[in-house]
Each structure stands twice: as structure tokens, then as C-alpha cells.
Amino acid sequence: MTLRPLIAALAFAAAQSSAFAAAPLAGTNAPGFYRIMLGDFEVTAISDGTVDLPISQLLQEAPAKTDKALARAFLGNPLETSVTGYLVNTGGKLILIDTGAGNLFGPTLGKLLANLKASGYQPEQVDEIYLTHLHPDHVGGLAVDGHAAFPNAIVRADRHDTDYWLSQAKLDQAPAASKGYFQGAMASLAPYSAAQHLQAFSGDTELTPGIRASASYGHTPGHTSYVVESKGKKLLLIGDLVHVAAVQFDHPEVTIGFDSDSKAAAAARKRTFEAAARDGTLIGAAHLPFPGLGHLHSDKQAFDWIPVNYSQLR
């Protein structure tokens, strides 16, 4: 019996093994959406992507202290930071809270529209959009090439923010480094304003059955959280009340350079954290690791963050 067939078979197997090992790296994760049920409401967290932020330079504490807290959480600086919007299907309306950055914040963001479609919805189906505030990473997804990305949607935001960020006088007075914030908000909201689809509200306001605005001013003049309730279940979407879990849950007094009013922002964060921990309210936070959903436990002046358990939505 010759050994040639065996040798040939072994050589073929080795070649196949080598070919499999040489497969190129895929390089991406799955489409970014995560869905939960809140009573009768369906809530879909939709990723806009992530962006590297120089957190040690942005947080208002000693950089060495921030670096130490990040290292303790096995993180580094810059910190890869999520940007997330939340889509709420009430059964009667489809409502999007925040729209991501669009093309205003670099190539690693701007994925919300594609991920919304991947989640099973189309932008034409969105009835209303509620903005936590008018910073570019929350409004940039509103427009594509100057046109409304959500052509049938009414956009709602607190009047303190629309009066500030859409003001030509404020833009003219702003330092050069801040002018982009105003220009981004103006460009993003222009098609909705032109179509009379921009509607401002003031402070705590019920916007639709089951969703109400809750003023959390400080990060911006009109920064707003949204309370979503159905069948006794409650979700609080807090926008930019927190940016860095590794620091601001242990030290909610630590603010970030993006805040318009640091003192008010810190007070709003602490007040919101205390209430959520006391009531067991589910929280959705735009910049915590995707999907940004979880609960808080209070530990004296600090808080523990407990992310939601993964679910197949059975």
C-alpha cells in the first residue's frame, strides 16, 4: 500500500488549515441597536457610534485623579465614548429622543440613521423627535445635505436651548471655539423650522401620553430629561447628565468642560441620581457604554451603576 494518498490528504488538510487562519479580520460589530419592553412601550436604544474623548482634560478635576479612576475600571485616556439615541414606540406614536451627530462630529459617529433602519424602522415613520439639548452630537442627525432626515417628524426642545443656540446674536458674541455649536444647531434644525415642524416647550411638560419633559438645566441652558412611563414601568432618559461612569458615579460633583453652568449641572446630576436610586427607575444615558441602560444604587454620597441584563426580548 502506497503512502502517497495519505501524504496528499495531510498536505491538503494543512493547506486548508493555513487558508482558514489567514482569513482577514472582520473589523466591525453587529448593527447597533438594543430593544427592551417598558410596559406596553417598545424602547430601542440606537447607537450613533463612538468617539474618543480626552476625558482627563475635559473633566473638572486633577487629570491624575481621572486617570487613576479610569485605570481602576480598565479604561484609558482618551476614552472611547458612546453616543446613543432612544426610539420609543408607544403604539400610537414613534418618538426618537436625540438623533446623534450626523456629520458634525467626525467619521466614527453618524451611524444612527443606518442603525435605526437595521432595527426595523424607517426615518419616515418617526412622528416626533425630542431633543435633550442642542449640542452637535445630539442634533446633527436631524439633517442630511440640508434636508430633513425625518421628513414627517415634529421636533421638540426646551425653549431655553432653542432661544440660545439658534440665536444669531449669541453666535456673533460666541468665542471662535464655540461658534461651531451654534452653527451645527442652526443647520440641523433649519429644515424643520422652515417647515414649521420645530416646536419649543418650557420646563416640565407632558409631550404625549406616557412621555413628559423634566427640566435638568445646567449642561446647557435648556437641558432636558425625558420620563417614559407605561403600565407602572418608568424609564428616565437623562441625556448628558453623566459622561464618565468610572468617575461621576463615585463623584457626581465632578463636572465636564462642555457644561454651560457647571454648578447647576452638578446639582441636576446629584438630584436625578438620588431620585433614580430611591425609586429604582431605569435610566438611559446617551454617553454611557451602549446601550446606556441600567439602574442606580445609592452608597452614601456615591452611586453604583448596574447595567441591564442582556435580554432576547422574549
What's a quick, concise take on this entry?
With 314 residues, the protein is an alpha+beta fold.
Summarize the structure in words.
Helix content is 30%, strand content 28%. The chain has 314 residues and is an alpha+beta fold. The model has no long low-confidence stretch (mean pLDDT 94). The chain has ten helices and 16 strands. It has one domain (28-307): 4-Layer Sandwich (Metallo-beta-lactamase, Chain A).
Number of helical segments with 4 or more residues: 10
Largest beta-sheet details: 7 strands, mixed
* Assigned CATH superfamily: Ribonuclease Z/Hydroxyacylglutathione hydrolase-like
The helix-and-strand class reads alpha+beta
Instruction: Tell me, briefly, the overall form.
Output: globular
Write down the overall mean pLDDT. 94
Unreliable sequence segments = none
Question: What CATH architecture do you see?
Answer: 4-Layer Sandwich
Overall helicity = 25-40%
Question: Which percent range describes the beta-strand content?
Answer: 25-35%
The CATH class name reads Alpha Beta
Strand-and-helix sequence, N→C? Answer: HEEHHEEHEHEEEHHHEEEEEHHEEE
Whole-number count of domains: 1
- Determine the N-to-C terminus distance: 59 Å
What is the number of E strands?
16
CATH topology: Metallo-beta-lactamase, Chain A
Strand order of the largest sheet: 1-2-3-4-5-8-9
User: Nearest-angstrom radius of gyration?
Assistant: 22 Å
